[in-house]
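Hallway conversation turned thread

IA: we were arguing at lunch whether anyone had actually written out VSTM5 protein end to end. Turns out nobody had. So, for the record, here is the sequence (173 residues) and right after it the structure tokens. Reply here if something looks off.
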Amino acid sequence: LSAPGGVSLVVPQPNINATVAQNILLSVEYSCRGIATIEWKHVSSWGTTKIVEWKSGNYVNISTVYKDRVTTFENGSIQLLNVGMRDAGYYFITVTEEYGTNTYGTIIVNVYEVIYEDLHFVAVLFAFLAAVSAILICFMWLCNKSLHLFQKTTTHKLTASTTEEIELETIEC
């Protein structure tokens, strides 16, 4: 975009998709005849926050909220470190020339959560169910073995008692 006073601003990537804890580069390129003041603001459902303001070649004034998370570049770009869900929204850049002309740019940032927590829960649940099923299988095997042993001893006792009866009957005769 070019303003009448000779200030121009190019936003090569107006939409950025990021995941939580990622570092993102809000890339722009400005040009003007004199000294420019660059200002970045973040607008979301939580409100509007001024991120940083600086003059080319001079001071940099970073908001205390972003103090340890923002890096500025001479071309007007900023890098935002360790993004969170609250960083989603619109990022407005204003480039103002020393004579008062200015131009604006916008970048939309979408931040997505990584679902590792859900996958971790499913893995733990699966491991728990596998352990319970293994214990139940062992328990059923032991019950089966015990039943076979019980049936053998009962059958052995029955055959022994019938043999004794047959022997007793033959003796009586």
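OS: looked through it. The mean pLDDT is 86.
IA: good, adding that to the notes. DSSP finds one helix and eleven strands in the chain.
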